[in-house]
């Protein structure tokens, strides 16, 4: 039973990554080009599991030559948004795109003249509708028997971050 469960989880997550691969399009290329031309910073943010994913992607970007900073969305709306300056690119990670803290952050980022990228599991969400660019990180289902625990969705977000980091690394000739 344990082996079957493990295989099912891994297959579910692998399938989700393969579906993500098919969704990589000109929006991904646009994001890479914008980051390459940036005059400000790359800022990554989120809440809950998405915040952990954003922090890991931040670390990966820094490792491969794209300076980035992580900003917890809750802390941002409580004063830390001063980190964000005009010309920055902010990648918001959110499975639902409806998390109250993330939704509250978007108008603040807009007022700070940041370029907002919604990396979301729902391209019709509030955050997606308010973003400058939307990256579709939706999954058909989580690798959880109750379809609740973020598993496939976090795996897809991490894989997207790795793809972004390596595309930027190659474009910069880093390493």
Write up what this structure looks like.
The longest helix has 22 residues, at 2-23. The chain has 175 residues and is an alpha/beta fold. It is built from seven helices and five strands; from the N terminus they run ααβαβαβαβαβα. Strands 2-1-3-4-5 form a five-stranded parallel beta sheet, sandwiched between helices. Helix 2 crosses helix 7. It has helices at residues 2-23, 26-37, 49-63, 73-76, 100-111, 126-130, 152-172, and strands at 42-46, 68-72, 89-94, 115-120, 133-136. The model has no long low-confidence stretch (mean pLDDT 98). Strand 4, helix 6 (126-130) and strand 5 (133-136) form a beta-alpha-beta unit. The protein has one domain (2-172): Rossmann fold, CATH 3.40.50. The termini are far apart.
Q: Domains counted in the coordinates: how many? A: 1
Low-pLDDT regions: none
| Overall average residue pLDDT | 98
Portion in beta strands:
5-15%
Total strands: the figure is: 5
Structural category is alpha/beta
What is the string of SSEs from the N terminus onward?
HHEHEHEHEHEH
In DSSP terms (H or I, runs of 4 or more residues), the helix count works out at 7
Distance between the termini: 44 Å
Broad CATH class: Alpha Beta
Strand order, main sheet: write it out. 2-1-3-4-5
| Major beta-sheet overview | 5 strands, parallel
The general outline is globular
Rg is: 16 Å
Determine the CATH topology. Rossmann fold
